[in-house]
């Protein structure tokens, strides 16, 4: 009951944040869908909805005899994109913000995004997936599957960045304007590597947290 309540409240909070942040979803080239933050928020909101649905019609057991499809979907999304992307967005945003906020979140935008909304979209997803990791065991898919999902998601967004740049003549993020082609290539390569590294970190964290519980469950079985 408590788990469902937490999922429900978190889902409402994320949907409320999305409602405030997505003022113009129809303009793909100039609206909020230019930003990875919004891609991540839509992803995390859908993931929370899946977690909530799984708590009703699926299973949170460590090793259920018959794993429901919704549980498999939850675990796969957590491993492949939800966990790595939540950490990626938070680490990249706050890392660049700490160096020079004008490169990622200019002061001029403060009138459009309040402090709570900034943390709602850049901090709370990371907090949620870490809590979710500790609260429930996730049976990770094969490493190849998980890494491929992360790479495809990030690769698709990097491609979208270039589409927006080609159509509007402006990079979505101000700091990209300051980089030459070699530096941008290095940055995108680093971003892909970081995403994959966070995927592997999630796998190791999940195994470390639940190793003893999984072992006990297998011994009882």
Structure characterization notes:
With about 220 residues, this protein is mostly helical. The chain has one domain (about 1-220). The chain contains 8 helices and no strands. The chain has helices spanning about 1-20, 35-55, 70-100, 115-120, 125-135, 145-170, 175, 180-220. It is globular, with a radius of gyration of 19 Å. The mean pLDDT is about 90.
Provide key terms for this protein.
8 helices; mainly alpha; ADTRP_AIG1; membrane; 221 residues
Task: Set out the fold topology.
Layout: H1 2-21, H2 36-57, H3 69-100, H4 115-122, H5 124-135, H6 143-168, H7 174-177, H8 181-220
Helix pairs in contact: 1-2, 2-3, 3-5, 3-6, 3-8, 6-8
Tell me what portion of residues adopts beta-strand conformation: under 5%
Shape: globular
Tally of domains: 1
The strand count comes to 0
Tally the helices: what do you get? 8
> Order of helices and strands, N to C?
HHHHHHHH
- Biggest sheet layout: none
**Could you estimate the helical fraction of the residues in percent?**
over 70%
Distance between the termini: 26 Å
| Cα-atom radius of gyration | 19 Å
**Overall pLDDT confidence:** 91
Alpha-beta content class: mainly alpha
Low-confidence stretches: none
Structure at a glance:
Helices cover 74% and strands 0% of the residues.
């Amino acid at each position: 009951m408590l788990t469902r309540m937490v999922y429900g409240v978190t889902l409402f909070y994320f949907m409320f944040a999305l409602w405030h942040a997505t003022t113009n979803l129809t303009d793909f080239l100039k609206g909020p869908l230019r930003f990875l933050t919004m891609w991540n928020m839509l992803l995390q909101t859908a993931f929370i909805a899946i977690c909530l649905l799984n708590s009703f019609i699926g299973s949170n057991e460590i090793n259920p005899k018959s794993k429901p499809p919704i549980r498999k979907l939850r675990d796969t999304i957590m491993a492949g994109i939800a966990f790595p992307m939540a950490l990626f967005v938070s680490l990249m945003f706050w890392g660049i913000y700490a160096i020079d906020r004008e490169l990622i979140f200019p002061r001029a935008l403060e009138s459009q995004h309040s402090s709570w909304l900034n943390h709602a979209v850049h901090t709370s997803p990371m907090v949620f997936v870490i809590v979710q990791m500790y609260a429930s065991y996730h049976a990770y898919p094969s490493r190849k599957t998980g890494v491929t999902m992360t790479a495809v998601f990030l690769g698709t967004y990097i491609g979208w960045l270039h589409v927006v740049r080609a159509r509007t003549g402006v990079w979505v993020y101000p700091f990209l304007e300051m980089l030459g082609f070699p530096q941008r290539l290095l940055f995108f390569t680093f971003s892909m590597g970081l995403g994959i590294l966070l995927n592997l970190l999630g796998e190791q964290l999940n195994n470390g947290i639940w190793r003893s519980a999984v072992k006990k469950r297998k011994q009882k079985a």
